[in-house]
Amino acid sequence: MTIQAKDEKAMNTDLDQRISFNPRQCGGQPCIRGLRIRVADVLEMLAQGVDQSEILTDFPDLEGADILACLHFAAKRASIARLAA
Description:
globular
């Protein structure tokens, strides 16, 4: 494994750890670092063209890496293979 691959793996692990699941919070939907900010809400804002800096201003508890974690989470979910009947 190259140094770059190790760094990328460590970064992905850090991003994964920013996403939390708690059945008593937001209906068990994935949230960011235990906050009541859902991954889906951040992704929806990005999809609507809201700039990352505006999201960070509107949600001062968020960090830039949290937005990257949401995108990473969505990318991993999109790559899950599903069988069609």
